[in-house]
Amino acid sequence: MVSRDVAVGGEGFRTAARSPNWLDRGCIYYTLGRTRSGSVTADISQPRRHWEVEFKIDGSVEIEHYELVAGVEDTPELLDN
Q1: Which residues form the domain of 11?
Q2: Which of 17, 29, 37, 67 has the fewest CB atoms inside 10 Å of its own CB, making it the most exposed?
Q3: What is the DSSP letter of 68?
């Protein structure tokens, strides 16, 4: 997983409003939702990849990116976190 905050100078909700347009044009599956007050979340899925993008009222955008790895992890330490 990769997580980062992106400042967009107060444009967070405007960016969220425009995002579905390019997602639709690219035939990319997504859902929009709300997980907390002051933000809108887009869950974007493609084969072997998933993004959670949170557009916040303060203009920041938080992106979490997940990729499917080949095989099965055989590392019990990963479960300790």
Answers
A1: 2-69
A2: 37
A3: P
CA distances from 80 to 38, 59, 75 (A): 32, 35, 10
CA 53/CA 63 separation, integer angstroms:
5
Give the domain CATH number at 47: 3.30.310.80
> For the whole model, what pTM was predicted?
0.61
Q: Which own/partner contact pairs does 65-70 have at CB distance under 8 Å and 24+ positions apart?
A: 65/1, 65/2, 65/3, 66/1
For residue 56, give the nearest of 11, 1, 4 by alpha carbon. 11
- 44-76 per-position pLDDT tens digit: 988 888 999 898 888 888 899 998 877 666 777
Question: Does residue 78 sit within a domain?
Answer: no
Whether 81 maps to a domain, the answer reads no
Please report whether residue 74 resides in a domain.
Answer: no
DSSP classification of residue 9: T
